[in-house]
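does this look right to u?? ISJ version
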Amino acid sequence: MSQEAELSHVRERIDAIDHQLMDLIAERAACARQVALIKSKAGDHQFYRPEREAQILRRIKAENPGPLDDEEMTRLFREIMSACLALEQPLAVAYLGPAGTFTQTAALKHFGHSVSTVPLGTIPEIFREVEAGSVHFGVVPVENSTEGVVSHTLDTFMTSPLFICGEVCVRIHHHLLSLESSLASIHSVYSHQQSLAQCRGWLDQNLPHAERVPVASNAEAARMVAERPGTAAVASDAAAEIYGLGLVATRIEDEPDNTTRFLIIGRADAPISGHDKTSLLLACRNEAGGLHAMLTPLADHKISMTRIESRPSRRGVWDYVFFVDIIGHRENPAVAAALDHLRRETLFLKVLGSYPEAVL
Ligand SMILES: C=C(O[C@@H]1C=C(C(=O)O)C=C[C@H]1O)C(=O)O
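got this back:
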């Protein structure tokens, strides 16, 4: 067979597969519509089901036959589900803007591209809009593998009635964006203070004399730099594209596997998915053994803790509060028993939410 004939044979096969795929996706979308009808009839307006989506994505990952890797395969299914859900209920998701931030990347990674993303200026504003019901969910950064905790997010949870209903991790690559084409012409570098910190080593080495200017977000830095010759921003390639900037240097983060974890916040948490986490806010007695007494119930019920963070309470009543993440859903019997026990051992316990462990 000639190369032409061989190619056209395989292409015919691809066309036929695409046709089948389209029919199957359309059939899937019709099923999602049917689900919406059944839910509406029962007066259930919870169209978005994070636990069900997590289960589907986990199954896709487990059954993926290759040659596409798990990340690619789950990403494709993430988008199919996102489009199907949009037929049931178009979701509005607030994130820390402006357009082009890593928080927007996190929102799209978690929900897929069929949601509308709403940029807001500050973390407390995101909480307020979700509370007010003007958006369905919010996405906020909570911790970075190099720089640690995003304290603003934790502090906002102390007074918020909202729940955590999901988590998503994004690999962060920082680039140096500018109107200039050489490092020698750059006298100031703008970015969010976390990003400046994540690139400290590179900046010390390559731009030791440039002033570092912390601003509200990386994307805001890119927006400002687009109007200021002689400056540069540390931000994402999405921001470079949106604000028309060139990349003077790429991947300038000090840690190659620099990852940020984001939380999805909503007015309710998520039902059991089978692989869940629970986030807690605790205050213990300010006395010898206080912290020990707080952790004993977790150990007694064999609950693993994945994170513990202390923050000044800023309320005067307790000196410090602790943010603790544990494995398991609050409705799992062992977790429920540990929480009962914890309630007796601590001055204050608030369950910030149970939610599926990140799949993507
Ligand atoms: C179809 C449903 O509703 C939504 C859409 C889903 C999908 O497309 O698979 C999954 C969960 C929900 O977010 C459902 O609840 O099963």
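The first strand starts at residue 92 and ends at 96. idk if thats expected tbh
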